[in-house]
Structure formats: C-alpha cells, structure tokens
Amino acid sequence: MRSLLHDRSRTRIALSLVGLLLVPLAVAGVLSWSLGQPDERLAGVKAAIVNNDEPVEVQGQLTPLGRQLSAKLVGDEIDGNYDWEYATPETASQGLEDGSYAAVVTIPENFSAAATSFSGDPAQAQQATIDVATGERSKPADEAVSREVTSTATALLGNDLTTTYLDNLYVGFNTLGDQLGQASDGATSLADGARELADGTGRLADGADELAGGSRTLADGLGQLDEGASQLTQGAGGLSDGLTQLQQQTAQLPDQAGQLADVSTQESEGVQQLNSELQIMSQELAEMSRECPPGTLPMCNKIAVQAAKSQALSEGAGQVQQASDGISTGLDALAGRTAESGGGLPALTSGIDQLADGADQLDSGASQLSDGLSQTTGGADELADGADQLAGGVRELAGGADQLGNGSGELSNGLNRAVEELPRYGEQERDTLSQAVADPINTDSEGRGFGFGSAGPPLYAALALWIGALATFLVLRAMPERTLESTRSTPRLVLRQFGLPTAVAVAQGVVVSAVLGVSQNLPIGQWFGVAGLSVVTAVAFTAVNQALAAFGGAGRFVSMLVALMAVATGFITAVPPLLGQLTSVLPIGPALNGFGAVLADTAPAGGGITALLAWLVGGLVVTCLVVERARTVNATQLSSPRAFGGATT
C-alpha cells in the first residue's frame, strides 16, 4: 500500500514538474505565435473601401485619385494587407456594427480635387484627407493596423504624385536650360548686332557730317547760283528790251532793202549803157586815131589819149556794172527775193521776233529759277542743320548701341553661366532622383510586419519566465518543512529548499530559449547567448518569487502585479513616468533589456546581469529572513506540538 502511494506521489510530482515546464512554454509560445507576425494573417480579415471621390481634370486629363488609392489598397504593393471589399456607406457601417469589417476607409468627394490642388492656384492648395474607422467589435490593435495599411497606400499614391510632379520639374529644368541657351544665343546675336549697329551708326554719323558739310557747300553754291540767276534775270531782261528795240528798228529793213535793190538795178542798167557807150566811143576814137591825117598828129595824139581814157572808163564802167550787179543781187537777197537768200531781212526780223519772245521767256524762267534757288538755298541750310542734328543723334545712338552690345554680352555671359550651372537630367537620372526625393527616407522594415517587431520577443520571454516562476511556487513549497526541528542553519535550509525550483528554473529557461530560437530563427551561437540569459533570468525570477511566496497570498499578489506592470509597459514606451520607472527597477526591467540586447545580437549590458544576480541574492536573503523568523518561537508556540512538526489528534 505504501509503495502504491509512493508511486502515485512520484507520478504526481512528475506531472507537476512537467506542468511547470509547460507554463512558460505556453506563455512564450502562444504570445510569439499570435503576436509574432500578424500581418501574414491579415489576408483573412475583411475591410471595406467607400469611394465617394469625384474625379477631376488636370491639364485636360481625367484624374480619378480616389480610384487609384482604392487600387493601391486592394493591390499587392502592400506586404500584409486586409481583404478589401468595395462597399457603400450603408453596408460599410453595418459591417462595422456586426463585426464583418475590421476597418472601413472612406474616401471623400473632394479627394482628387484636394490632392491635385497644388497644380493650380498656390493659395488654394490643400491636403487631401481620408477617414479610417473601426467598429466597437474591433480589436484594440485593429485601428493602428488599419491606419498603418491606409498610410502605406496613401504614401504610395503620394509617392506616385510627387514622382510625377518632380519628373515634370526636372523636365522643366531641362527645358529651362534649353530656353536659357537659346536666350544666351539670342543675347550673343543681339550683342553682335548691337556692335555692328554701333559701327554702322558711327559710319552713319560720319556720313551725316559729310552730308552736313556737303549741304553747306551746296547752300553756298546755290547762293552763288542764286546771284548768277539774279544777274541772268537782269541780263535776260536787258536782252529782251534790246531785242524788242531791235525788232522795232529792223521791222522796215526788208522794204528799204527792196527799194535799194530796185535802185541798184536801175543804176546797174545805167552803168551798163554807159559802158556800152564808152566802148563805142573808145573804139571810134581808136579808129580816128589810126585814121588821123598827117599833120594832125598832136590832135591825133590827143584823140589816142582820149581813146585810151575812154577804154579805161569803159573798163571802169564794166567794173562798176559788175559791182552794181553784185549790190543789186545782194540787195535782192537781203530783201528775200532770191531762193538762196534764206529769207534775208524778213527771216532776220522774224528771228529777232522769236528771239525777243525767247528772251521774254528766259527772263520769266530766270526769275522763277532765282526764286527757286532762293528757296533751295534755305532748304540746303536747313538740310545742313538737320544733318548736324542727325550726326549728333546718330552718335548718341552709336553710344547706346555700344552700351547695348556690352550689356547684351554680359547678359549672354550670365545666361551661359546659368546654363552651365543649371542641372540637366536624363530620363534615368530623372527617374532615380524623382523616386529618391519623393521618398527620401526609407525605413528598413524587412522581416517585420504589423507585430511588435524586435520589442515583442524580449517581453514574451521575460513574461513567460516570470509567470513560470510564479507558477513554480504554486506547486512547490517556498518554505522548508520542519524548520524548528532541523539543526541545519537557515541559509543551508533555504538553499536546500531552493534546489528543486532552481532545476525547474533552468529547464524553463532552456524551454523559453528554444521557443525564441525557433520563432526568431536564431543562429546557434546567438541561441546559446539567449539560453544563458534565459537560465540566469529564470533562476533570479525563481529566487524573487520564492521570497514573495514566503509571504503567502500577499506575496503572490505582488508577483501578479509585477507581471501586469510588465504587460502594461512592454508594448509601448508612452506610459506614465512613474510606472515606467517602477518597471525599470523591478527584476523584469533588466531582463527585458538583456533579452533585447542578445536578440539584437549584441552583448547585454553588464549592469543588467549584475542587477539580475543582485535580485537573485536578494530573493534568497529575504527567504532566509522569513525562514529565520519562522524558526523563532515564544513560550506559547513551544507548548504546541505543531511547533515541532507534530500532529494533533
């Protein structure tokens, strides 16, 4: 019978020890399993999208950003995403109430208008907003997860918008560079043209000076010509008057020449008769001289002399007749009676008449010429003055053109420097820069989802070991039996009583480290570090919980509060300062820091290990004090059989 009871006792103890190992295994395993990577299970959680957005036109292109955001939410760009469904406001609200939807994202009507407002009036630019709602049946973390998913989608959409905007901006830089280059070329051409204009206006000024000089010379020459024209007018007037008088004086010459011709003809005829008579007389005297009788020689000589004289007179009369004929012929010609005369005096008087008329016209033309030359002389003077002013203005223009050329050259140089300093981007560079500037900071979240990241496993491990230590002293005794009967010292009694819990603690530490190694895929070297820290932590927690269990129910309540504080401060940093400070000085504080360090593959701080060892020693000391107090009895307690481990009947 005693053997059977002994076997049952051993079986019960073995099961109890196995149960003590399962407690931290269950805590660490369940927490790691449920909270480790919840994003992998989000695909089984339904959420709704209510798209009330009205698309807008941007530069003539329809832009439905609400639809694009919905596509981002539904698409596969987000790692770990809800099972999104399109819903109406009514069905979405009903789904939140009955728990069908974990979250509802509502896109307002002005979403596209607000998101693209930066492309219009800067004063009217605004941010686009969306509404993320969770129902009363949603879990506490659902709202944070929903906002994270939605923020990721909006960030992706915003990145696309910003990338497009920046790409256009970089294209604008290239276009601006091209336009500045064209402007620089234009400024260079302008500078060259201005310099050529300055040179041309300089030559024009010289020409204007020459024009002024020539105009003055022309004015002087026109003045002299005016004086000559005045003299010509006077001479033409005198000529006209003289010709008029000559016309009057020669008007009767043709008639008088005709009368003279008639008289000359008559005279010629008389001389001809005289000549004939003289020839006859000369012949007769010659014959008389030859026939003169002798003795009349003196008379004959005289007759011969007279005959010779008569012959001479006859010859002279012949010559006079010829002269008279010539005069008569000339007077006939002068009177215009012969064809060879060309009109004679009548033609002369007619020519004098025409000449008088021409002289009158010459007088009138000379007067007009004189007046015109006077006016032209004044115009030439004005032309000279204007040419001087033109030369001055052209010189000023040349100076301005030179300044324009210099300024244009400086402008061209400045534009060239601007073109050189202005960046130019190729298509690949634009894509790279647009992506980098649109999302300049990228969080390295590889291997992490919507769980608690690297902060979760340290909390799970510390909490599992603390609850395991608490459970240990729900099964095992914290105080040694027969403390009054034992002759051993109190420390020896406490250490002997601490032996089995220590073995359980070591086993619990190994189990928890195994869970961490599997859940976190730890390499073997890092796992040994985690296992060592787990064992030290488990032993320290066991010593502290033994001391608390020695105080009975009050101590176990304090142990439960420590676990509660670990949960309250382990999931978020933003806790009340007092609560955070208390947790940091409790045994679980250095354990959390140590696990965080070794799981990050860094050595834990020496102060943390020292603190755990201090809590280990402190727990044993407190247990010793409690045991020592229990071994001290008064006279009343000595009379009781229980004081020595006896039983009452």
From TrEMBL:
PANTHER family: TRANSPORT PERMEASE PROTEIN (PTHR43077:SF10), TRANSPORT PERMEASE YVFS-RELATED (PTHR43077). Keywords: Membrane, Transmembrane, Transmembrane helix. GO terms for cellular component: membrane. This is YhgE/Pip domain-containing protein. It comes from Allosaccharopolyspora coralli. Residues 364-378 have a biased composition (Polar residues). Its main location: membrane. The chain crosses the membrane at residues 459-478, 498-518, 524-545, 557-579, 605-627. It comes from the Bacteria. It is a multi-pass membrane protein. Residues 362-385 are annotated as: Disordered. It is found in: Membrane.
